[in-house]
Amino acid sequence: MTTHWMLGPGAIGRLLAHSLAPFVEVAVIGRRELPTRQVLTTPEGEARDQYLTSLAAKQLVANAPKPPAFVHITTKAMAAEAALSSIASLLPPSTPLVLWQNGFYAQPRITQTWPGPVLCATTTQGAYLTGDDGVVHAGRGPTFIGDLDNQHPGLAEFLAALLSEAGFPATAVGDIRSRLWQKLAVNAVINPLVALHGVRNGELRGDAYSGRVVAVVKEVAAILAKEGVVPPSGSEGEAGWLALVWQVVENTANNKASMLQDMEAKRPTERGAILGPLIERAERHGLECEVLKGLNAEIEALENSYLS
Ligand code: KPL
To answer: Locate the Ketopantoate reductase C-terminal domain: which residues (predicted)?
Structure first.
């Protein structure tokens, strides 16, 4: 039986582990060991027990385990490289990695430096943790998998088929780069505004915030046009991005977005992986992005106030 490692025991890592465990050997790797008895609550509210191997990265390094077929990196975006470094000495250089991060920060950096294949995944599966031994699968959604340079379509298809068989529907795609940017675009508009104002996503539709939504979309649309990234469907350009953002706001109206949750829990946010790549591309193309820079600075100042 092949082995899959989930590096990062967050909600998506544990949901993947629960899904794959009946089909392959899985090990969930984090800074510390978790209870082996883990409970998954399905979207229908059914609780399912499963015994999962959980290891602390340090323990793993001491034990020299059998090399995995895939390493899924399921940490937050800014922690992915450090997590990979902590176990890299155990991995044959040809080991395929699967990056599950938000934004567009870890993906190009790890793709450039890792000698083996690097797949990227973007998912709309919804999950959250209820403690060290529980994960709730809050909502089902599709997952797309591919590599940034379209060099490994067969591997992406193999993994997508395995995940789909495991009840985690996935499709191999040749345009994962665009899909990651499209998700980033939506995240860059919604996450900073709701985090700074402490509101649920749906409140962005109100008069107090809708003007700010339009101002952020304007900058994001200009940057993505230069990058050759178009909105997924419907109208093009700024109108297309705005329509997409309003659609996601509508669909996730009751959500407390991830950046707001990070701020409330006084954790580092993913601003570096979401706003960072946009600001960097704007500078590269000589575009103004005062609104994005302003949001980034405001979030940075708040983070510094609780992290230092
Ligand atoms: O993905 C999200 C997040 O919370 O990070 C959005 C799209 C903003 C939905 O909440």
So the answer is: 175-301
258 CA from centroid of ligand 1 (Å): 6
Shared domain check, 155 and 209 = no
**pLDDT score, position 174:** 98
Q: Which domain holds residue 112?
A: 3-174
Cα-to-centroid distance, 252 and ligand 1 (Å): 8
ipTM score of the complex? Answer: 0.97
6 has a pLDDT exceeding 80? yes
Active site residues: 183
Write 57-63 long-range contacts (CB < 8 A, 24+). Answer: 57/7, 57/29, 57/30, 57/31, 57/83, 57/86, 57/87, 59/33, 60/27, 60/29, 60/87, 60/90, 61/86, 61/87, 61/89, 61/90
Does 252 contact ligand 1 (Cβ within 6 A)? Answer: yes
Ligand 1 centroid to Cα of residue 200, in Å, is: 10
**Which letter does DSSP use for residue 67 in this model?**
P
